[in-house]
Amino acid sequence: MKGLILSGGKGTRLYPLTYTRAKQLIPVANKPILFRVIEAIRDAGIRDIGIVVGDTGDEIRQTVGRGGRWDINITYIEQPEPLGLAHAVKISRDFLGDDRFVMFLGDNVIQGGISPLIADFAHHGEWNSQIVLTRVKHPEQYGVAELEDDRVIRLIEKPREPKSDLALVGIYMFDHHIFEATDAIKPSARGELEITDAIQWLMDNGYVVYPYIHRGWWIDTGRPGDMLDANSLVLEELEPKIEGFVDRDSQVDSRVTVESGAEIVNSVIRGPTVIGENARIINSYVGPFTSIYHDVLIQNSEIERSIVLENSVIRDVPARVQDSLIGRNVELGRSPVKPTAFKLTLGDYSRIGLL
Residue 299's pLDDT is what? Predict the structure, then answer.
């Protein structure tokens, strides 16, 4: 089998972070989401992976490379415009050939990996497709599957009155017949070739589509709140380790990871939390469900349930920072200049809450 990761899209719901960074490269628990997807596919025994890229392709190529760090082979596939998931499959035909493959959206985080799923599909040659479903509270916001006798009979994109609470997760298995479907379907009202239409075409034309109902957690990290939720869930699964320096005046509990080169000085760190390489935490409190990326400085401040990206500084902040996504090279602190005032330089689509 081969792997196909969709890593295009502009990530507008995560502005302003995604003005300057591909959304799939934003780290969850200090590891880019795209890395987690690659590792899930590799751990399932797949060594040839294609990554479909768009406007952020140069950054993704530079960061991911050709796959050597994972002992796999990566091929990049250009999608000039975001014309739909089925379009991404269609343009990947030269890479995929007649091989069966798994398609994984590059901004999804799923519990437990996909090895059992891949094995299931690989050992059922009579199946033409298998789709991953999970139960959701608001199915009207998703592509929804209707089942009959453990087989998928209908897919509906964002139905007004859902007949099922089983939503498409963003992980799909196909054989080569999917290319018949992508050639046959027409663009939707929004001008895209929809993967739900392609799968429905398979079923309408007698091909076999089986469901796999995922019982663990799954998050599409398209919004800031989703990103924080994913970070919290992944942090709970990390095996804590202390590789950096913790002084005797600090309190670091057993659920904290301190990466190489990091320093904790006269501070309280409560997990699950990860402190990245060469970060410095001085006279501060870092609370649960926080990921501090590398080369960050936090001094005389408090932070909890947040993500802070590389090279940022949080210093002398008078109130606790909470439920926040803080980008790269950010400086957050109290101005020493009188009169006292908020002095802000914020990019487009920024959000900030003030006391």
Answer: 96
Residue 198 structure tokens: 């392609």
Mean pLDDT on 176-205: 93
At 99-142, the pLDDT tens digits run 999 999 888 888 877 888 888 888 888 899 999 998 888 888 88
Identify any residues that bridge with 269 across adjacent strands, giving them in sequence order: 252, 286
Closest among 312, 168, 306, 221 to 25, alpha carbons compared: 221
Could you tell me which of 291, 289, 295 has the C-alpha nearest to residue 271?
A: 289
pLDDT tens column, 48-83: 999 999 888 899 999 999 999 999 999 999 998 888
Provide the CB-side half-sphere exposure for 59 (13 A, CA): 18
Measure the CA–CA gap between 199 and 197, rounded to whole angstroms.
Answer: 6
Structure tokens at 305: 């349930």
Report the CATH number of the 2-223 domain.
Answer: 3.90.550.10
Q: Which CATH number fits domain 238-333: 1.20.1050.10, 3.90.640.10, 2.160.10.10, 1.10.600.10?
A: 2.160.10.10
The separation between CA 199 and the C-alpha centre of its own chain, rounded to angstroms, equals 24
| pTM exceeds 0.85, yes or no | yes
CB 216 within 8 A of CB 110: yes
Are 139 and 159 spatial neighbours (Cβ–Cβ below 8 Å)?
yes
Closest by CA to 132, choosing from 109, 164, 166, is 166
The string of pLDDT tens digits covering residues 217-255 is 887 766 778 889 889 999 999 999 999 999 999 999 999
Specify the domain boundaries for CATH 3.90.550.10 within the chain: 2-223
Residue 233 φ/ψ, nearest 5 degrees: -65, -40
11-46: pLDDT as tens digits: 555 555 555 567 788 888 999 989 999 999 999 999
CA distances from 128 to 90, 294, 329 (A): 16, 44, 47
- Measure CA 337 to chain center: 41
